[in-house]
Amino acid sequence: MSPRRTPTTRYCFTACDLRLSMALWHCQDQHYIEPPPNPSRELLGYYCCLVGCQSLSLSDLDDAFFLPRQRSTSSFLEEISTRNVLVAGSSNSGDILRELASEVGFEVDEEGASVIDHLNYDVNDLGKHTLIVADSANMIDSPVITGPRNVPPLLYQGTGIVADKENPLVLQILTAESSAYSYVPDEPIKEYPHAVGKNTLLIAALQARNNARVVFSGSLYFFSDEAFTSPVQKALGGKKYDISGNQQVATSLSQWVFKEHGVLRVKSVSHSKVGEKAPPQAYTIMDNAVLLGQSLLETSSLFCNKLGGEGGILLPVVYTIEIEILDKGKWVPYNADDVQLEFVRIDPFVRTTLKRKPGGKYEAHFKIPDVYGVFQFKVDYSRIGYTRLFSTTQV
């Protein structure tokens, strides 16, 4: 059993559209799928969608999704607030989906609205220019989320999403072209569209502060067998591709949202003077500090004080953190050159980049400040696509 799963943890996946068999097979292979109790019933009473969530039993899904009037959306969100969710809607999505989206920071266009692009639509479009071709260059530049960007163009047919760009938790996974907008195709435009140009999100994501992940797509078609296997060509003289990039991107997205990718952990942390293994009772001023390997569960009740060494000799001090990443179900050393350490007493007195060592270890050397107080060694590592890494050790 892989480290990310425990006997009490299950991944549930429910769907009610048999045209999604390829997406479902992938998720079944990865153990996040269970068939719904009644595939013919319309999920949430309004739309067909995919929803996967960690540690939510099938009976809970039945209560939360199939009986929406008996339980509020906020109640459902509270239940899955520590889990991982994949949601896909369509142009026919109802109020429940929009309410669900708004609770996680997205706004979905009104029922019947579609993303329209009169310049970037597929040759197989039926005349409404709603089967749009999205270039892979419009994806977020984060291979850990979407995989490599050098994939064929993507097919999208669905509604538009907007999100607050100032929200640091929201990730714009896939945006439309500047010529796109979201509106009801058969109606004349009498007011400003809900989403226009690059502000039109096709797929959005959110990673909460507790590292729970949500992926929200305005297109169920994006995950369909038809989209996975169809050739792609822009109607206005575009290059023809034998197959779309939908399956590659959808696979990477599902692996990310269900924490196959981008999961970090701290294996060990420690600090001591150079040449010693245990942390001292107190660090003296102007000691040199470095990180080595002490359990995160251990904390030191040490105080930085003005104890000078004998004859004022500067005593060398040391500090190291060991970081791992989940790779194919196994924890392996994580390698990066941008991990920083702060030595904090309310505000940072020292901020330095940790030097990478073999085996996923990172080390830093610095002088203890000439200040009384209780300090913390703090590593707060937050990068797009990765779980937030936060470690503090009090001294």
Automatic annotation (TrEMBL):
GO terms for biological process: protein N-linked glycosylation via asparagine. It is a single-pass type I membrane protein. One of its GO terms (cellular component) is oligosaccharyltransferase complex. InterPro entries: DDOST_48_kDa_subunit, OST48_MD, OST48_N. Its main location: endoplasmic reticulum. Residues 317-395 form the OST48 middle domain. Keywords: Endoplasmic reticulum, Membrane, Transmembrane, Transmembrane helix. Component of the oligosaccharyltransferase (OST) complex. Belongs to the DDOST 48 kDa subunit family. It comes from Timema tahoe. Signal peptide: none annotated. Residues 83-257 form the OST48 N-terminal domain. This is Dolichyl-diphosphooligosaccharide--protein glycosyltransferase 48 kDa subunit. Pathway: Protein modification; protein glycosylation. Subunit of the oligosaccharyl transferase (OST) complex that catalyzes the initial transfer of a defined glycan (Glc(3)Man(9)GlcNAc(2) in eukaryotes) from the lipid carrier dolichol-pyrophosphate to an asparagine residue within an Asn-X-Ser/Thr consensus motif in nascent polypeptide chains, the first step in protein N-glycosylation. N-glycosylation occurs cotranslationally and the complex associates with the Sec61 complex at the channel-forming translocon complex that mediates protein translocation across the endoplasmic reticulum (ER). It holds the Pfam family OST48_N. It is found in: Endoplasmic reticulum membrane. The keyword Transmembrane applies. It comes from the Eukaryota. The keyword Membrane applies.
